[in-house]
């Protein structure tokens, strides 16, 4: 083997080192692939993507999963072992009998055999779990689907129903929606045992009604809400043990007969604890520890090195030696020392005294449990957390002392132990320990070898570490929150793939809060996206829309294209589902009466009504033009008039003023169309009236409104102007030759000339009415006062112009052609000068003079 090149020369790899040094031959290490899982939730296909965010879409045809099938007895037994707590390594705890519970046991078994439901109510530590185990064993072959054990600790009724479905039916990769879940649960017939139930009232009624063929055996504390009066549940109260039973239980826990002093001490403890079995299990542990301290084998290591390395000696062997010594057997290897009995206070709250006599690994495990709020990590994690390869045996020590109680597939501190340990300073450096646990779980949950089922079994410990790190203070708060974000990113996809969606939601919300406090925008956007996808699966579309829009906004700021695309796809699905739901709701709703636009009161609140399209007509010798003035609205905005109300005849007679949707301007779709048509007709009529008035003659002053041939078109009155006269015979008409006049629209004054020719004052282009609308408030043209009759008028010189390509203001141009000499034709008169309307758009009028009647192309 070459010391420089670690490759094997025997198999021809002796050149790998040289190739690696030269940068060739050895590929770069590839990162671990993200675990992508596809699930079916109802009619939706969910792809759990831990990188960019989960994707959700309607399940494509042909990819529907197989129908769930009932589990076989072997599969049910395997599922029961998976949800049971593991047997802790280390010294085994003594077997304890079930005392003074035979009556309750028989009564509960009879209720379940009749297909009814029962609820056991007892204080924490009263032995509810032991009683449920005994009753479940009695009902093993009672139901066709067997006995299903569930844990109600931190579980909602919906989560319990999903766990029941998973325990009885084999449906990998499926999580039915609400309707599908209820349909499948109706066929399940099992004895469902739920320990540590936390719901009651209507929630409990929902749980019982979802599985009508199941018999439920529930256990809860006295603080849990009671079932409703209509719930078919019989309650069984669980009281404490009697004095004789308590002393018998204590002797079973110690493994020997009690002395008179110990019996008196146990009597005082029974009176103080009201006969709770847990207190006597812990008291038995105290007496076993006392026996070990009193008995010291001569051959044991004097310096305690073995105990320091491997923990305390076997308590069973020590108890056997102590029992032999107490029975008067003379053993030279046994040395008895005087150790006083614990005080009554220490017997009532023995957690601190018990912990002080445990091994160092067990004490460290207790401190980690305190940092997690009572949750105990799995025994497989203790060696890495504690730093001792034999730390997994600490779980057996804690269990034998009565400091732990089983909760589903794991353990947690027994009732009252956390409070007692906190009172003795076990919370010291709890934040740092929670940070250590979170770092370990973040690495472990993201490891490819960890299955989603194993991650969901540790859900409570993971969530406890998350919640412990978020409200951090001090210099390490930012680091703790960043670790919480990493843990949430690693655990949330595993919870989703493991179908534990209650834990998935809690992990996402905790991670989103930690990312917000830590200022990690990308991670916050990821959690918002996942919460939106989860809301879609739950059918809460409004919540899904809000979460997805927040995610898209944050990812847009970060220019995260892939994440933005995933969010928009999910948001499009929300829009599609919302449309379907809205259509279904509309189909279910009864037909409503016609609705119209509400009548708004006051000109300030009046909505802007759409203007009808203007009526167009061909101009003489030109294309279709649009009016130069804005069309008259259907409802002019007069200051002293409101919108016209179209109501029924009977309503108008009775004076019924309806408001809101019932009292509107119009009602019904057809009436809206009628109103629009009436508005268009009104515009046409008004335009016709204005046009006729503009083209009609003015006979009041026929002579004063004419321009003779002696008048010129020069505004300054010069003699170099042109005379206005009609074209001679044989001359081409300007309209026919393509020359446009500047009098296409009627005069704003409403007066017109009797002669076919029209003249306009050149000063009109500079008048105020030539820029903008003549009337900005009412939409109607404003009349212009004609000049006095005694004032001489002029005509403008002709200009050869073409119609502009777009509406513009036309100004007179200087003459470009030589004017024709005057002829002997009698002079004609022209109408008085008027002010031209603004040329913002070309006007189409009704009743305008034809092309043959136009006398000249002069803009006069």
TrEMBL record:
Residues 722-734 have a biased composition (Acidic residues). The keyword ATP-binding applies. Residues 851-860 have a biased composition (Polar residues). Residues 10-22, 66-79, 650-659 have a biased composition (Basic and acidic residues). InterPro entries: P-loop_NTPase. One of its GO terms (molecular function) is ATP binding. Residues 85-94, 609-621, 800-836 have a biased composition (Pro residues). SUPFAM superfamilies: P-loop containing nucleoside triphosphate hydrolases. Residues 597-608, 635-644, 745-799 have a biased composition (Low complexity). It comes from the Bacteria. Residues 1-32, 48-95, 585-664, 693-860 are annotated as: Disordered. Keywords: ATP-binding, Nucleotide-binding. This is ATP-binding protein.
